[in-house]
């Protein structure tokens, strides 16, 4: 299978794609991927195709018909070679999309490259036609040619897993770590501090490589799409990761720089966890349909845990920085009442149902947040039962050697057995009641934290409407919208609903000002509160909320060290956080 990617008018965002392949049947199915690995929902990429035509080797038009929403059946009777010409609209930048303008050609081939299913494991090549001044950031090997670049790939799987950025303005630097070459590519307006980046990246890259003991490639590429507005997104690949961050003016400072480190560490660990250590349902990937699996709590949850945890262990993050990331996961967990309705395993399965949107209120958990907390609990479970002789590191190394290096997928039963092997104890209680059940995590978390000499602190929210009235708000295009309602709270009893727009409080017009609303809530704290709301955009209602100071709804949660910590707890914490294996 041969591919040619080019364009004529970059400002129109249409990429021109040609697909050429030998055929030997009367009918040939041409398939476009229905989803992309790294996001377990249907992508419906075919909606971005404007024109699609099939030809034979002599340039004669071939008859075809749509077989499914993303496949075509072409009449190839007496045809030796098929030549498909189509275009793809690429106007959105995130870590898993494709984008074309006058500054760059950015392509995730899994979005836009068709294939013949029977040829998916055959070698293929990709020709990229771009200006001579363009540089190419890609994980696959390539040759520079007069018209652009030529990439030879082992099969369609490698093509699908090889995003690239071709640009004249892309910035690059590289360093070596544990015998592996790491490349840092930055596309977009920013001023990378190469020395600072290399110092921090070397620490966590080296730590991960030593911890896992093997790495599937000799070169690895971090491809950063730096945007002028707020953005945070990353997608994993075996030889690369694409990370979209913004705004570029704050890239090397404060929270955004910490986010850069966090997502980079997360995506690097994905090289093992999910790209090579892969659920049995995804070994190999089937790009034509949903690949259902309940193991999102391992693929994404454990990776989320290690993404920040290994920054702490490698001394990139200090204790305070790590605890802050942990607190964010805890807060999301305790604020999400879907945790009592759908387990993290079932929520993993259901990403294919409602994607990565919050969905209907309080229906499901989050495989990243809850998976992270359960990874922490599992890590401590193994440490506690093995007297700190083993930990979750051992599980990941074993899954790598026993499954990934043998190109085998693992099941949830395999994962459970592996945990039990290193813990020397039954994992049934956690596996059935928390991973596959909806029991309250709090006792489990408290027990794990106590082992490390830590505890949870719950402090009432500083906002009256969260603490005493039981609802949260967001700014939605200048409107104050209700984003969450605490079950059976004052606001829930009064009839307040998610997405209601708050217009006023006690006859005072709020004018979409969240700070003003908070100030008036404080002012009327000891009086009856009447909210004027618009529901469904047309219904104006007045809701009376009776304040009850004795009840506290939303709380801020955080992890902290206990004051009465024992010597054993001190040792446990040191072993958990040490810079050793």
Q: How far apart, in Å, are the first and last alpha carbons? A: 45 Å
Number of DSSP helical runs:
17
Shape: globular
Helix content: 25-40%
Beta content comes to 25-35%
**Radius of gyration using CA atoms only:** 26 Å
Overview of the molecule:
The chain has 581 residues and is an alpha+beta fold. 31% of the residues lie in helices and 27% in strands. Strands 4-7-2-1-10-13-12 form a seven-stranded mixed beta sheet. The protein has a five-stranded mixed beta sheet with strand order 15-16-17-19-18, with helices on one face. Strands 8-9-14-11 form a four-stranded antiparallel beta sheet. The mean pLDDT is 96.
Keywords:
581 residues, alpha+beta, 7-stranded mixed beta sheet, 5-stranded mixed beta sheet
Task: Itemize the secondary structure elements and their pairings.
Layout: E1 2-6, E2 14-22, E3 27-31, E4 49-55, E5 64-68, E6 71-75, E7 81-89, E8 99-100, E9 104-107, H1 109-112, E10 124-129, E11 135-138, E12 142-144, E13 148-153, H2 156-160, E14 164-167, E15 171-177, E16 180-187, H3 194-212, E17 219-226, E18 231-236, E19 240-246, H4 254-270, H5 296-313, H6 319-335, H7 344-349, H8 351-354, H9 369-385, H10 392-402, H11 412-423, H12 428-435, H13 442-451, E20 454-460, H14 464-467, E21 471-476, E22 479-485, H15 490-494, E23 501-505, E24 508-509, H16 514-523, E25 529-535, E26 539-545, E27 555-561, H17 567-577
Parallel strand pairs: 1-10, 16-17, 17-19
Antiparallel strand pairs: 1-2, 2-7, 3-6, 4-7, 5-6, 8-9, 9-14, 10-13, 11-14, 12-13, 15-16, 18-19, 20-27, 21-22, 23-24, 23-25, 25-26
Helix pairs in contact: 3-4, 4-5, 5-6, 5-9, 6-9, 9-11, 9-13, 10-11
